[in-house]
Design a protein that fits this description.
Chain lengths: 506, 506
């Protein structure tokens, strides 16, 4: 009896309030989850749970390969999940734009960068599989109508500029075109359709799913549960659990509800934990990534995240007490988040550092206007003004900027070894734009173990669980300790496509 | 349907060979695991799975509290599990021996040491609960007849000497007396009795267990399965998964079957993974600890581990190429293991460092004789001989030893900040004893999430799973990233005792 007591389940998410508490009193109906004798309400060929990058790419690929009845089930009332609200950053090796810009890159180089960030425990076979197919996935988005800035960015931990970004600087620039494409291809997407569990045969093979229709997120046990027989395969593309405070605190007791989170509210991980109940192997659950580019001055992903991702290469991050830099501004995410968290006042309270950028460089990205407009960034005409505003020792800050401008000239950062390629010629000078930095919970490296065929492995048999596939943030292993920025979209899309290929034996 | 397809399960342990493979062909019998309609073969009040520290302490405590029918089920043919073969090191704060030696210590100090090693993610409430009850557990072992060396040791990461060690320098010095105590108290221990899964009611509460009797480890599906009704509670004390190569590689792909392991063969983790199938929360699974005191020259825990744990405080660890120290020899385990693994030749191949000890100090521990007798340690009459044997630059080594002896004199290690309390007056001088060091997989910090009552938490409800308790290495959270040495025995015993107290509401 996996999924025991499904009808009694409460949403174990702190902060849901009265709705969640009331539901706890609902009596148990004790649904069995063996499919034997189950009344099937209807059937599909391929059921995709979740409508983010992974789910949408799986749907498009399945239809391309001739699948008939493909359906997407999304628990929220809107399509796109957490994918729709991130930065829309897409890394791929050896792309047309890299060739145009004369940049050398390869699958091996991209894999090596990620292996380094993964600190020895990343799954290299999965990284290679994704890198090898990243251009296909990129092309799928372009074919569907996604539009990208006409330049590449070099994100933290990448040894070369290889990151595309949507012109809207947002993941919706990809999920919206892909969603339109699924509609064109005849894939129905059911919103407010919550995955409730698997229906399995006596061998533990997945034969169907339970879907709660007319579900409202944040309430519980509302709507009606239908049993859907799945002929070919279920693809779990349900994402991470960064918004599930109890589950993230299980891994890191410091990640309380007080800690900011960039994710969409629906990122609560039930799909992942349901797979563990089925026997999937939990991998790297303890590795929860905080985004070092976030701001304490706004909620969620906000404007500053995109702003600082773009500007880090030609900016400095500065400690308020010392007026000195404290990190390589384009190190990998974990390195930077750890360095930022070390910024404390004398009592040990958080003292968010600032990022200083020349206004003439920041204004080249559309987010510069937005951070100023919404009061989460500041513009200063002189260093004196800036230092006064943040109570930074002026002399020290002047010295730091002089030193840094020396590195811009020589191309060698003697303080932190930051690669200066993208900073060449970009001296720091007034007027300045400034944002404050403080990490927010952003990404769950952990999840279910999968093969390079997107099959979900059983902890006892070591074999794939028949009928079950998973793709994207719900899976674990590929990134190891720390995922590099812009490597999630290619992963989600390639593994979603791969799941459909595996099911259809293409 | 948790535990689907139990009868078909294969032991997913690489290296089991033909027996394991043959079993894969056994036909599925598709046992249901809902207890409805199950034929109960017999019943017990408290079922304890596993006969290591946690299981034995749970059994003794349950009987003390008046429980009637308590039984232990052990899959191996011998009692004691992995507990019986470790170093028999037991940390407790503010003990009689500390007071005798004039050492100040407290629950808070012991907790603080462990919190630091846990690198921010240890469960402080569990650490405190264990530290508060550690003396009771120590007393339980003494009452049962365990004997300890008449001195305390200061292990890596501990800020004070607080570690007892059995006179046999082995965990069997505790498991044997405790086992005798359980027999005296009328607790049957069934060996070759393998836990196969839970039997649960419609609410998911644990009502019984399946036990495969007459089981032979390494074969599969041998013996017969009986259904045992459990009236009061099941205590899972099944240990870690360090010997399950597939499962440890899932967390760290570098921990192949080529990597040494100190654990007993039975440490394969089925009990843990079965709890995940029931809905237990996987915590810190990625944190697998390697013991920095192990030797590449012998299998398993061996003789060198105890030898070097005793000698590290007054010894130096030296890199063969440079002839220099490379770590604080009593830093926490992870810090040292990482430092040792960085010892490489020019091609990047492992180049195990050596530990150098004055023979006059090493000979005070019984293991010194053993490492020499079994050829896993060497004795040299002069530094010249030693340097020649290991091809170390003599001048550099001489200089290093001179420097280090300076630290012994001043009590301040200027190289790595090692606490020198236990090294005072212990100068390094010929003759020397030497062992080689290389980390071995030793301990799984990860496991199921529990409360301070040893209840197992359900991932969806956030509430304890009724009828289920867990204690010891099978649980996760308490140690965070890195467990301090000698903190496992108190944890296992206190949480085993706690489980029985919770069941009996004592």
């Amino acid at each position: 009896m996996t999924n025991n007591n499904l009808m009694k389940r409460r949403n174990f998410i702190k902060g849901l309030g009265a709705a969640g508490l009331a539901a706890a009193a609902t009596p148990a109906l004790a649904l069995s989850n063996n499919s034997k004798g189950v009344q099937w309400h209807r059937s599909v060929d391929i059921a995709i749970i979740g409508s983010g990058f992974a789910g949408l790419a799986a749907a498009v690929e399945a239809k391309r390969l001739g699948a008939k009845d493909v359906e997407i089930f999304e628990k929220m009332s809107v399509v796109g999940g957490n994918s729709a609200i991130n930065g829309g950053l897409f890394a791929a090796p050896d792309t047309p734009m890299q060739r145009k810009e004369g940049l050398k890159d390869s699958v091996e180089t991209m894999v090596a960068d990620q292996v380094a960030a993964g600190r020895g425990i990343a799954y290299e076979d999965l990284l290679r599989h994704v890198a090898e197919h990243a251009n296909e996935a990129l092309q799928m988005t372009i074919d569907a109508g996604a539009e990208y800035h006409p330049y590449l960015q070099q994100l933290g931990g990448h040894s070369v500029a290889r990151t595309y970004q949507t012109t809207v600087s947002c993941g919706a620039g990809i999920t919206q075109p892909l969603y339109k494409e699924t509609k064109k291809l005849g894939v129905p997407t059911h919103t407010r359709a919550k995955f409730e569990g698997f229906l399995v045969n006596d061998n533990g093979d997945v034969e169907g799913i339970k879907i709660r229709e007319n579900y409202y997120f944040g309430r519980d046990n509302n709507g009606e549960v239908v049993n859907i027989k799945v002929a070919k395969g279920v693809i779990m593309a349900t994402g991470g659990f960064a918004q599930n405070v109890a589950m993230r605190m299980a891994q890191d007791p410091t990640l309380t509800s007080e800690v900011g989170c960039t994710n969409a509210k629906g990122a609560t991980g039930e799909g992942m934990f349901e797979m563990f109940r089925l026997g999937a192997i939990p991998v790297h659950m303890a590795h929860i990534q905080s985004g070092p580019w976030a701001s304490p001055d706004e909620g969620g992903f906000g404007y500053v995240s995109n702003y600082s991702i773009f500007n880090f290469p030609h900016s400095i991050a500065v400690n308020l007490k010392s007026g000195r830099r404290f990190m390589n501004e384009i190190a990998d995410r974990k390195t930077r988040a750890d360095a930022e968290l070390a910024n404390r006042d004398d009592e040990g309270n958080p003292m968010p550092p600032i990022m200083i950028t020349s206004y003439e460089h920041s204004k080249k990205h559309p987010t510069a206007k937005k951070v100023l407009k919404y009061g989460v960034g500041w513009k200063f005409d002189s260093l004196e003004e800036l230092a006064k505003h943040f109570n930074i020792p002026l002399k020290a800050l002047e010295k730091q900027i002089d030193e840094y401008n020396g590195y811009v000239k020589t191309g060698v950062d003697k303080q932190f070894g930051k690669p200066m390629d993208k900073a060449m010629g970009k001296y720091l000078k007034a007027p300045f734009t400034v944002v404050r930095l403080w990490p927010k919970v952003h990404y769950c490296q952990g999840g279910v173990q999968i093969t390079t065929k997107a099959e979900v492995v059983d902890s006892f048999s070591g074999k794939p669980i028949k009928g079950l596939y998973a793709a994207g943030e719900v899976t674990g292993g590929i990134h190891g300790v720390s995922r590099l920025g812009s490597c999630s979209i290619p992963e989600c899309m390639v593994m979603g496509m791969t799941a459909s290929r595996s099911i259809l034996k293409a």
